Amino acid sequence: MLNIRGRVITLFDLKSRLCWSKPDTGEGRVKQYNVIMKTRDEVLKIDHELAMTKCPWEDPVGLAVDQLGDVRDIVDDNILPPPANLTGIAADFVHGVVEFERNLLIILDVATVLGLNNQASS
Fold first, then answer.
1. Over the stretch 19-41, which tens digit does the pLDDT of each residue have?
2. 58 with 39: CB under 8 angstroms?
3. Is residue 35 a contact partner of residue 63, using CB atoms and an 8 Å limit?
4. At 27, is the secondary structure helix, strand, or coil?
5. 3-state SS record for 69-85
6. Domain of 112?
7. DSSP 87-102
8. How much is the pLDDT for 7?
9. Per-residue pLDDT tens over the stretch 56-78
10. Count of domains in the chain?
């Protein structure tokens, strides 16, 4: 749980959720960033279809991550299926991949990561 300006937010540790072990840096705590997701009501103001299909959470939630990168606009037509050799619990969370500047970016299914995938179309 996280309290930001009086707003209580459920925080999911993405590395733990993907069953990735934390690196042993010998320094103890690794730097962490909190990515706060917009709620369904907030997304409704931007894109109704996106809110109804991909954003089932009504309450504030966030993801704890080790690094932040650039924000990219991705067109659905450019998303490829996940690689066939992707296995384990992390594979269940991958929506697809997209090639961007000679790199492959993994697109996560955030509703599945949060354990809400069966509510996405309600």
1. 776 655 556 667 889 999 999 99
2. yes
3. yes
4. coil
5. CCCCCCCHHHCECCCCC
6. 2-119
7. -SHHHHTEEEEEEETT
8. 87
9. 899 989 999 988 988 888 888 88
10. 1
